[in-house]
From TrEMBL:
The keyword Transmembrane helix is annotated on this UniProt entry: yes
Membrane-spanning intervals of the chain: 315-338
Protein name in UniProt: LOW QUALITY PROTEIN: N-acetylglucosamine-1-phosphodiester alpha-N-acetylglucosaminidase
PROSITE patterns linked: EGF_1 (PS00022), EGF_3 (PS50026)
KW Signal (keyword) present: yes
One matching Pfam family: NAGPA
Gene3D superfamilies to which the protein is assigned, alphabetical: Laminin, Tie2 ligand-binding domain superfamily
Keywords: Disulfide bond, EGF-like domain, Membrane, Repeat, Signal, Transmembrane, Transmembrane helix
Amino acid sequence: MRDWVRYLSEEEVLDTENPFVQLLGGVVWLIRNGSIYINESLATECDKTQETGSFSKFVNVISARTAVGHDREGQVVLFHADGQTEQRGINLWEMAEFLLEQGVVNAINLDGGGSATFVLNGTLASYPSDHCQENMWRCPRRVSTVVCVREPRCQPPNCTGQCWQGKDCMELDCGLSHCSGHGLCTETGCRCKAGWTGSNCSEACTNGSFGANCAQKCHCQNGAACDPVYGTCTCPPGFTGDVCAQECPLGWHGPGCRSPCSCEHQCPCDPRTGNCSLSLSPAVTSLLSQVKQCFPSPKTTLRAGELSFFTGTTWLILTLTLVFLLLLSTAVNVALLCSSRVERNQRHLDGDYAYHPLQEMNGELTAEEEQQLGATHHPVKDRSLRLPIKVSPKDSCLRTPAAAGGIPRPRAWTRPSGHCASPVLLGDGHPQ
């Protein structure tokens, strides 16, 4: 079928010398040689071949659709989509996209899907859009065109059955290996898949070739393996890139350059084995020499780091020590100040005092007392004096009659020794 999907002229159709046995026509060539061909069909075909309306509407309206086509292997593909014009279904653009996804390389749109009835193995497989006499049922439309597709049988007189087997000559036979599972058995023998060759497709592509019939050349380098189907390179350990042309970057090794080196001082390793004892190429040695000049030696860097750390630590310790001493000095001064105040207050309240209670006296002084005190004082009558006065022996004393004139008081406050410092107020309100 793949050789006979094309436009025919009127002369070709009416040719009597080489007439067609069967012809199947449609409206709009959907797919041509693997590409959508709708726009070209709109410009080429006659719009009178359809009755939906304008040609553009016929293409874009949603409706039931039917198409026939074939894939790259020459197998016939029938397509049917249920629907009803302007209500449900698909347009021709959507149908063409779907057929492309299924691997169809040539396809034409048949009459509208509403005119078709799809029967598969004797069973109705479509949902007709026309109503029956009873509207609750749908009935197939009566049309005269029938497209029948079936497997080939050995009925024509020129069919020898070569390479076919089975009761209906439906099964191809390409020998015991049956193309080794890497090819397709055809009437002319095995047609190998990409990456395989030989009469029975048992040999993979070699000598750096790949693809269909091993016709394409591989470009892998450094002993990389070439995939016989797609030509992709599988790099050996130590190499990377699309064609395995680059060595692993410094510090990496192994398949795919995914393993880091573990050498001392961050030295590079062998990109293939990861061995740290290696003799580098002159180019790598020169590069490492140039890089080394840009960095200080590890010992110098370490000493500088230690010195910086030591200096910072020393200053921190000194600062903390001074702060601690300052706080300690402040605490000691505050404690001494509080202790001094407490001692002074305690000395005033609980000092070493001598208590001498005054006796009660009533009436006038005797003649002997008046003679001792002199006639300058007036007698005290009906006085009762009891003054519980505390006098510190260190700070105060009571004046005696010998020191100052006044009314004598027996057993008054006295200080064992020393001199009077301040007057003392007695019971009569006179300072003594």
